[in-house]
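step=encode ok
step=design start
structure_in=
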């Protein structure tokens, strides 16, 4: 992979990017207690207990396979995502962290995040995760409104979610929670009030996602049958603007389209993705981007949990995709990911990756319309006004 260092003196979200966008390990736990009707993540419900020891063995196998391809890297972040990783036993998490540490050097201030659902049973495991080495918990609160939690198919109440956040804050040095807004029937004023409540209980980080109607979900079927009505474009825009205004005013500005943090408390894991660093993904349906030889490769594993397990046990790894990215694919990805960040992208790095220059008149036009800005160090940023049009802006720039 062409590791072109960041060299501009512009301010970075976490002060870490200069010289190295980092290396991270993503671990996917693909099981949930029930499928939420809006969710298209690789999550599966099983009637019988999961054989966690067998999964640990497979994770170990897959980690050592990826380590063979990425010798000499130092791990900046480990992320347990799902699915519902808070269904894992703490000793399962511990053994996977140990396996990561056996395979790579670890940065001294490594971030180890686990995604948790806020039922009381799961909160009961939080201490165990902390003892296993997890130092950041990300909790799926989703709404501070019981009727809406029910409509989202969630299996916890607002009271349980608040209790889980408080428990997490007393155990982990770093916490975050997720909310979904632009929900059916939500007014701007209701969201403003809910967000104000959320900010009162928030620590250093919040993820605030606009509800997306994903293909092949129950919400999509209801939506196309006219039985689930989501906010129109104007209301969505007003909700987004209110989100920026309120979080900014309370010291939790957006550092990415949907992610807000106190300065220095950004998720290092996601920064590795958005800055086009390297990451390996293990577990069913995990993605990776690694530099092997001269190429940056896109990797993805088998999605179906039992098929992934069988493949890892027979072949020593679960990859079903492992392809070099063309310079054009790499540079498109660099723009698409990097322009999500408030720190923006380094135009020189784009040009080095793609071998082509961004068209000056295109930059000037988008800047004149107020959608992007460019600083004296050659960093390009999408403005808050341009953020809802991010995909179109990237397509314009990359054309
Ligand atoms: C991997 S998911 C879920 C993690 C965890 N299992 C949970 O449900 O809390 C990560 C986050 O994506 C967000 N999300 C999932 N589907 C979404 C959708 N259709 N629209 C907007 N946000 C979504 C939710 O906020 C969720 O917490
Ligand atoms: S939202 Fe979370 S709990 Fe619900 S199905 Fe998706 S991954 Fe599972």
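sequence_out=
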């Amino acid at each position: 992979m062409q590791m072109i260092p960041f060299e501009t003196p512009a301010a970075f979200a976490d002060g870490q990017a200069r010289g190295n966008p980092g290396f991270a390990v993503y671990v996917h736990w693909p099981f949930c207690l029930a499928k939420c009707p809006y969710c298209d993540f690789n999550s599966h419900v099983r009637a019988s207990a999961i054989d966690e020891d067998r999964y640990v063995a497979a994770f170990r196998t897959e980690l050592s396979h990826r380590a063979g391809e990425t010798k000499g890297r130092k791990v900046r972040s480990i992320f347990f995502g799902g699915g519902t990783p808070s269904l894992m036993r703490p000793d399962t998490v511990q053994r996977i962290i140990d396996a990561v540490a056996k395979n790579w050097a670890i940065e001294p201030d490594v971030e180890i995040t686990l995604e948790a659902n806020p039922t009381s049973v799961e909160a009961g495991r939080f201490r165990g995760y902390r003892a296993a080495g997890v130092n950041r918990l990300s909790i799926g609160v989703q709404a501070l409104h019981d009727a809406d939690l029910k409509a989202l198919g969630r299996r916890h109440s607002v009271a349980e979610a608040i209790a889980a956040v408080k428990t997490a804050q007393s155990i982990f040095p770093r916490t975050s929670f997720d909310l979904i807004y632009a929900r059916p029937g939500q007014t701007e004023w209701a969201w403003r009030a809910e967000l104000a409540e959320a900010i009162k209980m928030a620590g250093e980080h919040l993820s605030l996602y606009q509800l997306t109607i994903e293909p092949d979900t129950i919400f999509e079927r209801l939506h196309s049958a006219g039985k689930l009505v989501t906010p129109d474009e104007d209301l969505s825009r007003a909700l987004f603007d209110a989100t920026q205004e309120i979080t900014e005013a309370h010291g939790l500005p957006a550092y990415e389209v949907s992610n807000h943090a106190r300065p220095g408390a950004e998720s290092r894991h996601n920064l590795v993705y958005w800055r086009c660093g390297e990451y390996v993904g293990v577990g069913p349906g995990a993605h990776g981007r690694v530099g092997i030889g001269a190429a940056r490769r896109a990797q993805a594993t088998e999605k179906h949990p039992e098929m992934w397990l069988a493949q890892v046990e027979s072949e020593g790894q679960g990859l079903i995709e492992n392809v070099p990215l063309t310079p054009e694919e790499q540079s498109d990805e660099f723009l698409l990911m990097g322009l999500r960040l408030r720190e923006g992208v380094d135009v020189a790095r784009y040009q080095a990756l793609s071998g082509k220059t961004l068209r000056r008149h295109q930059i000037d036009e988008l800047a004149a319309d107020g959608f992007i800005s460019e600083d004296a160090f050659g960093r390009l940023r999408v403005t808050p006004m341009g953020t809802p049009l991010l995909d179109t802006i990237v397509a314009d720039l990359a054309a």
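step=design ok
step=annotate ok -> Residues 32, 35-36, 39, 41, 43, 82-84, 117, 140 surround iron/sulfur cluster (ligand 2) (CB under 6 Å).
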